[in-house]
Amino acid sequence: MIKLRNVSFGYKRNRPLYKNLNLTLSPGSIYGLLGPNGAGKSTLLRLLSGLLYPQAGKLQVGEYVPGDRQPAFLEDIFLVPEEFYLPPVRIRQFIGSNAPFYPRFDHTQMMRYIQEFGLTDDQKLNELSYGQKKKVLIGFGLATNTAVLLLDEPTNGLDIPSKSQFRRLVASAADEHRTVVISTHQVRDLETLIDPIVVLSDQVIALNASVEEITARLWFGMVSELDNSRPILYSERAVGGYALVAENPMGEPSRLDLERLFNAVQAEPARIQKLFSATSILANP
Ligand SMILES: Nc1ncnc2c1ncn2[C@@H]1O[C@H](COP(=O)(O)OP(=O)(O)OP(=O)(O)O)[C@@H](O)[C@H]1O
Question: N or C: which end of the chain has fewer CB within 10 A?
Answer without folding.
Answer: C
